[in-house]
Amino acid sequence: MVLLKNYHLFHAMERFDHMEKMVVAGIVAEYNPFHNGHAYQIEATRAAGATHIAAVLSGNFVQRGGPACTPKSVRANAAIACGADLVLELPLPYAMATAERFAAGAVGLLGALGCVDVISFGSECGDLALLSKAAEAVCSPYCDDYTKNLLESGVTYARARQKAVEQLYGQSVAEVLSSPNNTLAVEYLRQIALQKLRIAPFTVTRGGARHDSDKADGKTASAALLRNLLDLEGIESVAPYVPAPALQIYRAAAAAGWMPFVSHSLNAAVLARLRMMEKDAFSRLPDVSGEGLGNRLYDAVRASVSLDDLLARVKTKRYTLARIRRLVWHAFLGTDASLMRLPPPYIRVLAFNRRGMELLSAADKTASLPISHSLAKLEAHSDVCARFAQLEACAADLYTLGLPRVLPCGSDYIQKISVHG
Fold first, then answer.
1. Could you tell me which residues are annotated as the binding site for ATP?
2. Is the overall model pTM greater than 0.90, yes or no?
3. Which single residue of 106, 126, 341, 378 could bond 346 by disulfide (Cβ 3.0 to 4.6 Å)?
């Protein structure tokens, strides 16, 4: 498979020399929470020539498996306050999924807008040529065959694929897949090719604190460290590592009871839900193949006395904690596995500013999917839209049980759009 030509954002700008035209950059993010590293990416993307920036944001549940540290509305507001122009919601079946599905949904939404010129993403290596080689490698049918053979040895899918790439394409290409942001970058490039989109890639080299590091580096800290600080020490503990506008939003949200999500608050409810499930239901969960994982999860549920105990019982060299967490939370939310195989059916707007309004006006003429901030309006478009919307609403109803301020059911249907000046 041949990837689209690798343009830098500067090259995307050259296409519009002497033309009065917006250059739209898309960013895929969780902002869990928004911090200085995220602000740097937006600034770098803007400095490179983007006139408008659209962020595709995970909702109330995130890719690592589990609830976000603060509601999607708070994170969307922080993104707009810190430089994004438009924030769209990544539907839950993609937001809490493998890197491949996460990228497929996010890139699909950017493509569906019909006016996105560039996708901007962070990477550890900062080398588009190397990332593109890795993307071509994982697209190879030979790589698939090697990966399947290696899976039989009991290693994780990610490790098996990396070893397959090393055997076929060499160590330098394979090493790209050893870092989380590189891996997502490769998946974005792969999806651009698979979906045949005319979107140019632009990468910002990730610096400062490493992914999931438990130590800060100057004014940068990993999202994992910030979540721990929020959980243990409160809002003010993250002040050195987040932009001032985001901190102001976090303070207001905390005062209103919107954050932080209490990390252990739903653990008993999750275990209770899993204890009520029939054995066959575990084999029908998203991302459970015919390898006995459903039975393993069922047996662990019957023996476990806490959520941590459950995760420890299921985890093996082959089954990562992230995969197990996603399975557990999808079981709790009642996610229909068939939704994971469908493309995003709509584009939901969470927040925007004046430039975001300009972007939406352009998308009105180019978008291939219905666009609205209203979940009720989107739900009415089709049966598939209704299934996605109802899952999103259910997830919001359960998520709010972990906030200081608990809301009644239906909050996602009446959530007001955030419009910034």
1. 28-41, 122, 181, 206
2. yes
3. 378
